[in-house]
Amino acid sequence: MKLASLKHSYSDLVSKPDDASDEYYPSICLDEDSMKAMGLKIVPVGTEMKLVANVRVSSVSDSKNGMSSISLEFIEAAVEPKDKQPDAASVLFPNG
Q1: φ, ψ for residue 91 (rounded to 5)?
Q2: Rounded to the nearest 10 degrees, how much is the dihedral formed by the CA atoms of 44, 39, 6, 59?
Q3: What's this model's pTM, rounded to 2 decimal places?
Q4: Distance of CA 35 to the CA centre of its chain
Q5: How confident is the model over 18-69, as pLDDT tens digits?
Q6: Other beta carbons less than 10 A from residue 24's beta carbon
Q7: Alpha carbons 33 and 88: distance in angstroms, whole number
Q8: Cα separation of 81 and 24, whole Å?
Q9: Across 77-85, average pLDDT
């Protein structure tokens, strides 16, 4: 599996929102039931996390202007902190 940056730049578009930085990323919104199923709690905005998912292609689009897109359905997913850091106890007492 290859991880790739999905960053886009507003400078590639005709205009950008007044209050936005120059970069943006695709996003998904998880409802409360989905968060509960993954054991995900509310975290501060800007927290980076790792998402692992099994997805299914739900639609494919090729437009006349040459733009293509694909929609994915999330079948299974897990979210965890981006970099799992060992807890203090396991660092201080590595043998248990």
Answers
A1: -75, -45
A2: -130
A3: 0.61
A4: 13
A5: 666 677 788 888 899 999 999 988 889 889 999 999 999 999 999 888 888 8
A6: 15
A7: 32
A8: 21
A9: 82
